[in-house]
Structures are given as structure tokens and as C-alpha cells.
Amino acid sequence: MMKSTILGGTATAVLVLCAQQAAASCETVRMAEPGWSDLALTTGVASTVLEGLGYTAETSVLGIPVIYESMLRSDLDVFLGYWDPAMETYYQAYRDTGEIETIHQNLEGAKFTFAVPKYVYEAGVTDFSDLAEHAEEFDSRLYGIEPGSNDIMLDVVATDAFGLGDWKVVESSEQGMLAQVKRSARKEDWIVFLAWAPHPMNTELEIEYLTGGDDFYGPNYGGATVHTQVRKGYLDECPNVGKLLTQMTFDVAMESEGMGYILEDGEDPNDAAAKLLKAHPEYLENWLQGVTTKDDRDGLSAVRAHLGL
């Protein structure tokens, strides 16, 4: 009887210790984004909400392949930016193993493919197949964003698709690429570049998306949905954070507004996120249904107080 009691007590202690360790592992939520302003914003929004709930949110800026490898090694917990199908080539190696789990569609109505200024489009470049015959005007260059985010564009060149095998992919950053687009537009020089929505570029610049890239970017101008992903087992380990992540849904108008705070006003992503949530607190009610603070208080009240609402 005494032996059974001792063993029972030991088992209880082990369970308590495991629960404490699991809780401790959830205190810091480790996220990453690839340096794109839409994902900087949404990750900033998640960070702001998590901090209001009493968690510590850490964000790293990494290339997409590094993000996935870090999640595989359990060095990262959350990625809010899986664009489907545009990022299929990055994710396909991890899908079947179950090492990275897609848990929620957080945006619909996105798109992601090549674009040109309106004056180039009106001159007759409306499709991927029109590019090669105007190689001289384009200086045989395709403008991309951060290294690690242009693999599809690089595949177009590597496979000599559309006769673009001898073109050069210019990699810089989102801001660097858009600065080049604006310089070209002022002089009405020809340029073809990677464009997407949501993004303020769609209202700030007169651009047109090219048809014909379905085999690389998917149909409907690279029409995409964006999904939240986590490392394997994270929802079981951290169910309260997981509940938030499976309820946090954005929309194109909201993201475009918040990205404008970053790109036009020079706001830090977390500051932009707080400004956006203060302007649209109604999003919080659905996101925080059934979600508590880290110490089990009402989540919605805590986040509203954190934002000064």
C-alpha cells in the first residue's frame, strides 16, 4: 500500500512537472517572417495581441527555406505567411511528413505574380509570353524581392520558360524593388517585377498584372489564400495560443491599410499593428473568443487594456 502511494505520488509529481514545463515552453511564442511588409504587419498584429495576453513574442526575419528548416528543428513555433499555391515549392517537402502543420486560412483574395507599369501594359505587354520579344526594353531583367523569396521567378529563368532563360533576376528587398519601380515609372522606363495584393502598391502605382503565369504562380494572377502554420505538436503543447492562431483572420483591406502605416508612415510593424487594432478593435472580439491570458484571465479585456481601448 505504501509502495503504491509512493509510486502514485511520484507519477503525480511527474505529471505536474511536465505540465509546468509545457506551460513554460508556451510563455515565449517564436515567430518569423521573410521581410515582406504584409507578413511583417500580420506578425506584428499577432505579437501585439500575444503581449496583451501576457506572452512574450519573438520575431525573426528569415528567408522562407530557413523558416521551414527552423520550424523542423523546433527553433520556431509559428509562421503566418504560407501563400498557397505560390509557396507550394517551398512547403511540399514538409507536407507529407507532418513536421509542419497548416492550421488556419488567415486571408483570402490575395494574388502574387509578375506585373508591369500601366504604360508598358498598354504598349502590348499583357502576358508572360510577351516579355522575351521586348528583352531590350526590359534590359533582360526581372525584379524580385529578398533572396530566398524569388525561387519561382528563378525557376522561370532556369527552365527557359517563355524564352527568358538568359534574363537576370535582380534580388534586393521589397522596399528596394518598389523604389526601382517608382524610378522607372517616373522616366517611363520599362520594368517587370514581382507584385502582390494585399499591398499599397496596388493603389499608389498604376500597375497591371500579367496573364500566362499559371504554371508557375497559379491561376487568377497567382490568386492565393494565406495560411497559418506551426511546428508539429504546437497546438497540443500550447492550446490557448493555438486557439488564438486558429481564429485570427485578416482581410485585404485591413492588411493594405496597416501596410501603409509601415511603408508610407515609416511605422515599426508592432507600432503599425497597434495603430491598426486601435482603429479596428472589432476584429479582437472574434479572434479572442474563448482565449484567456497566460494566467487565465479574460483575454479580450486584457488585450483591450493593453491597447488603451
Q: Using DSSP, what is the number of strands?
A: 9
CATH A-level architecture of the largest domain? 3-Layer(aba) Sandwich
CATH topology of the largest domain: D-Maltodextrin-Binding Protein, domain 2
Reported for the largest beta sheet, the result is:
5 strands, antiparallel
Label the structural class. Answer: alpha/beta
Order of helices and strands: HEHEHEHEHHEHEHEHEHHEHHHHHH
Q: For the record, what is the CATH homologous superfamily label of the largest domain?
A: Periplasmic binding protein-like II
**How much helix is in the residues?**
40-55%
The Rg value, from CA coordinates, equals: 22 Å
**Name of the level-1 CATH class of the largest domain:** Alpha Beta
Mean pLDDT: 91
> Domains counted in the coordinates: how many?
2
GO biological process, one term: choline transport
GO molecular function, one term: transmembrane transporter activity
Signal peptide: 1-24
Keywords: Signal
What does this structure look like?
- With 309 residues, the protein is of the alpha/beta class.
- It has two domains: 2-108 and 225-307, D-Maltodextrin-Binding Protein, domain 2 (3-Layer(aba) Sandwich); 111-222, Glycine betaine-binding periplasmic protein, domain 2 (D-Maltodextrin-Binding Protein, domain 2, 3-Layer(aba) Sandwich), CATH 3.40.190.
- Helix content is 49%, strand content 19%.
- Strands 3, 4, 7, 8 and 9 form a five-stranded antiparallel beta sheet that branches. A two-stranded parallel ribbon has the order 1-2.
SSE topology sketch:
Layout: H1 2-26, E1 28-33, H2 37-52, E2 56-61, H3 64-72, E3 78-84, H4 88-95, E4 100-117, H5 118-122, H6 135-138, E5 141-143, H7 151-158, E6 168-170, H8 174-187, E7 193-197, H9 201-204, E8 207-209, H10 214-217, H11 219-222, E9 224-231, H12 234-237, H13 239-245, H14 252-263, H15 269-279, H16 282-287, H17 299-307
Parallel strand pairs: 1-2, 5-6
Antiparallel strand pairs: 3-9, 4-7, 4-8, 4-9
GO biological process, one term: choline transport
InterPro entries: ABC_choline_sub-bd, ABC_Gly_betaine_transp_sub-bd
Keywords: Signal
